[in-house]
C-alpha cells in the first residue's frame, strides 16, 4: 500500500485488551485524510478500547497502528509510543462522557488541550477561533466547566481536543446524551473539520447519526472491524447485525437529553 492510499490512520491486525482478556482481535481499519470513518458497535464491543489503544493508553499485543502525520509527512508507527508523544504528533481523543475538568474555567479547559504546544501566539489565535466558532463557550469562558449543560460540555470537549491541532481526531460516542438539535450541530461541525482535511474516527452506537456523517463505516464485532458500506455479499451478515441492534433501539436518537438541553 502506498502512503497516498494509506489514509491518516491505518490499523492492521490489531489485538489488545486488558490482561489476559482480548477485546480486539485482528482488527483492521483505515481513516482516510479529510474523511470521517465511523465505528459502530453496541455497548461492550470494544470501541473505547480501540480509541484508547490508538492514543497509547492501552498497549497493543499485536498489529500495527500507522499514522500518516501532519501535512501528509511521514508514516509513523504509534504502537509503543507514550500518550504524550502521540498527542504531540497530532492525534487527539474526545473521550466518552466528555470528561471536561469541571472545576476549571471553560477557557482553562481549552488551554489544557494545548498543553503539548509551545507556540504561544498560535495557541492564542486558536483559542480565539474556538470562541468565535462556538459563541456559547465565549459567553461562558470564565465559568467553571461543570456548570455547562451536557451539550455545551460536549462542544467544549471537542474544542479542547482541537486546541492540540490534530490531524486525526478520535471521538468516543459524542452524540451520547445530546438533544437532537445538538446532534445536528455536531454533525455540521464534524463535516466542517473533515472538509478542512482532518481525519476523524467516530465511535458510535447511534447508527442514524453516524451513518449520516460518515464517509465509511465499520461494525466492531468479535474484536474485528467489518466494513459495512461495500457492496459485496460477504458484508451482508454484518449489515444484518447492525439492523438487529438498530431495531433494538440503537438507531433511534435514544439518549435522553439532559435537563438543561430542553430550551
Ligand atoms: N479497564 C478495563 N478493565 C477490564 N476490562 C475492561 C476495561 N474497560 C473495558 N473492559 C471490557 O472490555 C470490553 C470492551 O469495552 P469497551 O471498549 O469499553 O466497549 P465499548 O466502548 O464499545 O462500549 C467490555 O467487555 C468491557 O467490560
Ligand atoms: Mg465506550
From TrEMBL:
Domain ABC transporter, residue spans: 9-247
Pfam families: ABC_tran
Keyword Plastid: no
Biological process according to GO: L-amino acid transport
Gene Ontology terms, MF aspect: ATP binding; ATP hydrolysis activity; branched-chain amino acid transmembrane transporter activity
Superkingdom assignment: Bacteria
Keywords, comma-separated and alphabetical: Amino-acid transport, ATP-binding, Cell membrane, Membrane, Nucleotide-binding, Transport
UniProt key word ATP-binding: yes
Sequence similarity: Belongs to the ABC transporter superfamily.
Protein name (record): Branched-chain amino acid transport ATP-binding protein LivF (TC 3.A.1.4.1)
